[in-house]
Amino acid sequence: MAQQQDHPSRVQATFGSAYERMTSIGQFVEAWPDHASRIWIFSSIIWLGVVDLFGMIIASELTSPNLFGGTAWLEFGRVRPLHVNGVIFAWLTMMYWGAIFYVLPRLVGTRHMWSERLGYWCAWLWNLSFLLGIFTVMNGYTTGSEYREFIWPVTALQLIVWVLNIFNVLMTVQMRVVRPLYVTVWWFIASPLWLAADIFIGHVMWRPCPTAGNLSACLAEMINTPSGALGSSLNDAMVEWWMSHNLFGLWLTPMLIALLYYFVPRITNTPLYSHTLSLISFWGMAFFYTGLGMHHLLQAPIPGWVKSISTFSSIMLLVPVFAFGINIWLTMRGNWDKFFTNLPLRFLMTGFIFYILVNVQGSFEAIQPFNQMTHFTNFVVAHAHLALLGAFTFLGMGVIDYIIPQIYRKPMYSWSLTNWQYWTITIGFIGFFLVLTMVGFIQGQMWAQGVPEVNLLPVIHPYFVGRAVFGAMIVISGFIQAYNIWMTIRVDTRARSRQAVRQHMQHPLASTVIPAGE
Amino acid sequence: MDNTSNGPDNSPANDGQNGPPSNNDQYNELMRRLQYARTISPRGWMQQPQKKMLMSPLMSSVGAMIAFFTVVFFIVWLPENTFAVGPSKFWTPLSNAALHGRQVFLDNGCVYCHSGFSRPEDVATGLFYLYPRASYSGDYYGDYEQSPNLLGTERTGPDLSQEAGYHPNDWQVAHYYDPRTVEPISLMPRFSYLSQRDLLDLIAFDQERSGKDGLIRYSIQLVAKKLTLMTLAGKQYQNRTIADCQPAGKDKKGATVYTNCGVQPPVGFNGTQDMRSYVNKWLYVQNNILGKYGDIAPVAKDMKSFGSNGADEPDEFSILTHDRSYWLTNDPLPVTQENLMRGREIFQERCIGCHGSPGNGQGPGAVFLSPPPIDFTSPDDACCGPDTSPGDLYYRILLGVPGTGMHNFSQQLSVSDIWRVVLFLKTIPNGGLTKPVPKVNMYIQWKPSKEILAFIKKYPEQNMFPYTQKGLLTDPFMIAARSILPGAGVNEKFYIYGQAYTLKDVAALIRTQYISLLKTSYNDAVGRHEAGLPPFSFLCCGRNTFSDVLPIPPTYFTVGTWPSWELAYAKKEFKLSVPQVAENYLNDIASNS
Questions:
Q1: Mean pLDDT of B410-416
Q2: What span, in angstroms and rounded, lies between the C-alpha atoms of B563 and B411?
Q3: A residues 76..95 contacting B (CB < 8 A)
Q4: What ipTM was estimated for this complex?
Q5: Which residue, among B452, B30, B55, B498, has the nearest Cα to A334 in the 3D structure?
Q6: Which of A151, A243, B372, B575 has the fewest CB atoms within 10 Å, i.e. is most exposed?
């Protein structure tokens, strides 16, 4: 049949010459055990709920500060780092590793990761490290540096897990069947390596206890006092912000790119538009994203040339971002009907659109005059949520909603619930973003006119209430997903689905739409 | 296309999951899309990327890391190894207590809402009270004690790099216990869970983090508090000098105990010492503008003492009096329903934390404050009765009262709004807060005494700007002393139980206090073996003052910074020439009688 002749060659263009060998295995979906992937994905779903609740706590505290009556471990300054670190390292990172452990064997043609068992135990170690992080920060043991609050021992544990994961990935690539590396695999190799170096340098891991002489004093110091920071305050700030922004630039963004490069062609059954563009985006990111972190300090008394490099890098970043954006956009050309019919793809592409927006926004924020108006305001908070919630969380939800049916070879328990999940988080997030952006402009403009911060608190209070309400929608969305996936695993959705498809196909107006992920 | 081979298939073998699409329309649609996809697909070698665009694992790992470290060299290694700034002229080391307080600050995530550097544009845009100067690189000198950084990224609350000395310690205690007690609109969490030591060290950090100018402001607060408490003290302390009022050690809870002051300032969250008994006395002193209550505070018994030394300035002065540029003014705004309502709105938004919702000076914050807040409800007291001029109240709200919890509202309320609050305050004894709406007829008119009217007649041209017209002070400690004794001339005396003091004496007190703070910090830093510690002579006291090493505008040293626009605004909007208002009043009386 014509369709069967077309199909493999088109996929071959995307996934390499071994595709036919792979398909000849037969029911190859069953060949992947995905042990490691599952545990990372499940953890991430649970952490999403937890970190959303952290966010909800601090959003509520900003509307009624005496809500918890001065409970130490629920104090804003202790929960906020848990929200920030949790979103990045618990929710998104675990989701990403789950996706890597799912995607990588399929791209390199192996049946599984080099060691599924290692990946499995790494997931538990990672969970443990984050539980330790929550415990320590809630009890006031923190480095006190934004985006790197966890004390040295916790970070060290995370770094160990990280290196083990890198080893797993490299060994899997080493034993690959498909020799050419698809673009996604480039990112899978490079991005964790970058982040390991980034965290090692940024957390000043070689300096766990700056002053203590012996081991016990050193232990006390790395828990109780500033550890993992450079001595001079401004130098420390430069390292901190270089490191922090690279969490986005060298880990979250590359993984978004890598996963979109895999899932968009996979779901739309279309080859990636251009590999030249993907090459440009890879090396562009490597060179420009690494150098822009100090744009967080454009107003601070640090050397001017560092600010210049950061601003330059921030603007030049648009080149690889648009190379990537054009690539995905043109891959989607002719496939936009799937955006409306395929829910995982809808999540992914919504995340993609938010990603392009956040990059354009971020580049402009790094320009000095614009930065003067927005720095210190909630505009930056809105920007951060556009990235972490709009882009990466949407992507993560799409990835999970795609992967879980694949791993379990079942359709979702309810695509209708997924639809609810999509709309609650979309409306919740857009409202959240707009409210915070407005607050940011109010703050920036009023400060510029000499109105002190405290006078604005009654002004922005209704906006903060709005933020909490929209934030609640986001929390609900995460719980809808968790419930949906829990039920997908528990209930035999396959039988239900067969019946549904049969009825669907018999319908005279039946279209090509198949309700499952593919 | 061969449609016949793809007929509808409902056989059990085809369950709709595998195999080709079983529907003709579906198949045609798929084919149409495939055709379309082919027309837009990339051409040539791009369809076979693996032939041209190889990225080996080595390239993706080692190559990517080389790219990474190339950038790291320029953006991290280079600045880290070339950017080393020495201490700025403002820099001071932290004491051990403050260093521990810094850690408490970090542990509780204060930095997420309070940034740690003020920008040039903050200074330029008029937030002068909050941000008297921009932060310099050298302010962050110091290896261990400045690590990790506190620059911060957000300002939900104000930047704290210049916070030191703007609030006295007891205000800080109340604010940490529950920020709403002293700032009802605050969003800050409660820190009532902090231990006594953590709390006091955190406050020490707040008061030491701004460098030298901050330490001077802090010294002003300490000395002003001391003078105030001395004045408040009973007659048994009549023969004490200011120097006797000293910290005498710590009680078992770790709180500082003062002796010979007469009043123990409550410290810590357990400091529930009842200050009620001092309220009236405090009011008594505060109202002692012209020595009407001479048995308590030592001021002129009659108007003769003013100008008795032959100069234009009175030679005796209450320590709690105020700049004389406003004390003879009436409210420039008309007493209208709207103004009173607005005044009450602001009062309920900003003032009730300390002054209480009935205005009785017993708000939730009052228990921490020493001296306690004013009671506005009594019409007998000069506070809100006909004796006190509205300008007096205006001035206190505008610039605050050093040494007390009353802080500077000059940047937080507009000039008009402060005057409206003053209008409203004058209705409180008649039920401005208890009645549903403050009425115009509740307003208590200012009725200056004969002595004041005589004084106005005698000195029609009072000085508006003490800083310029009474002799421009250059010594920072003299300027600091004048923020405690606003409007005091250089040779003027004030008395505390018979002891005469001049501005210079207060300046010397502040200087002693400042040097002692500086020495404590420096000795602590020496004890910590800090690397790169400059000699003490770098920090202080090359000459009698340190103005030689600190060539900055004198306004940095005053707690009650007078915003430069305030008087211009008042003149423009209200046509307000200060003594003129009183003179007009005088003329009115003359014409009516």
A1: 82
A2: 8
A3: 76-78, 80-81
A4: 0.88
A5: B30
A6: B575
